[in-house]
């Protein structure tokens, strides 16, 4: 009987102590608190070892620096003009690669359409050439097939005119085989 009362008192005290301790400040910006079985609030699920002290904080895949995605406009904004200048040296950084790809773009002059967008995906080899032809991944909805073909031909001819790109050995090795997605936006005011 005394054991049961002692266990009940210890459980009550531990519950009061747990509720009284301050909540940890979450070091991850814009994230929810880690989960617990008795929590009734939304939380971020995670898994930790039972041997680790304290609550688990899940690892978050941060969105920067992992994707090779680029937008190329036919008429760049005044503030972005420097990003459209081809570097005068071997390409050594992703920024150099993006500048070279932007400078290659020549939009079609005939059968062009204002607001046309098209995305392609491709990969480079170590020597700066393409591994296969660019693959179309998106085209503006409702555009006739002949206009899509015109833009895809312009994309292919623009890339072929710039290739092979001159990579440094470090950038060539890092980029080889990795997919690159480029969205082309024809923001010219046509017909004026």
What does it look like?
The protein is of the alpha+beta class and 192 residues long. Helix content is 29%, strand content 12%. A 4-stranded mixed beta sheet has the order 1-4-2-3, with helices on one face. The longest helix has 19 residues. About 6% of the residues have low confidence.
Uncertain stretches of 5 or more adjacent residues: 28-32, 60-65
User: β content, as a range?
Assistant: 5-15%
How many DSSP-defined strands? Answer: 4
The assigned structural class equals alpha+beta
Give the overall shape, derived from the CA principal axes: elongated
- Rg: 28 Å
Strand adjacency order, main sheet: 1-4-2-3
| Share of helical residues | 25-40%
Distance between the termini: 94 Å
- What's the average pLDDT? 79
Number of helices: 4
Spell the H/E element sequence.
HEHEEHHE
Biggest β-sheet: count, sense, barrel? 4 strands, mixed
